[in-house]
Amino acid sequence: MTIVVGHLATPEGQEALSTAVTEARERKAPLVVVTSGKRPVDECRAELDELASGAAAGVDLRVEEGTGDLAEDLIRTATSTGAELIVIGLRRRSPVGKLILGAGAQRILVEAPCPVLAVKV
């Protein structure tokens, strides 16, 4: 069983990644980090190498390049790896904004083949 998380250079993405590392360590599960597809894996590699040698030291970490549709990529990766958890980041919203969840987050919550942990920043 694995834990799947997207790699985004946003506060929500960084919080999701940090939480996913913690979950992977506690569950002794491999962590699959899916890049957003908007930045080549090589550009993300330095950040992810730093993560692997720092906060994620000792975690079985694998990186997969996304296609640009992060929701689809996370769902597909979770399905193909038999993931036990997907971790996503959400930003705080105004009372009106709470009526509408982001389309990507909503799609992941509805279509995910496993539980989804939503981390709010």
UniProtKB/TrEMBL annotation:
Transmembrane segments: none annotated. InterPro entries: Rossmann-like_a/b/a_fold, Universal_stress_UspA, UspA. Coiled coil: none annotated. SUPFAM superfamilies: Adenine nucleotide alpha hydrolases-like (SSF52402). Residues 2-120 form the UspA domain. CDD domains: USP-like. PANTHER family: STRESS RESPONSE PROTEIN NHAX (PTHR46268), UNIVERSAL STRESS PROTEIN UP12 (PTHR46268:SF6). Belongs to the universal stress protein A family. This is Universal stress protein. It comes from Promicromonospora kroppenstedtii.
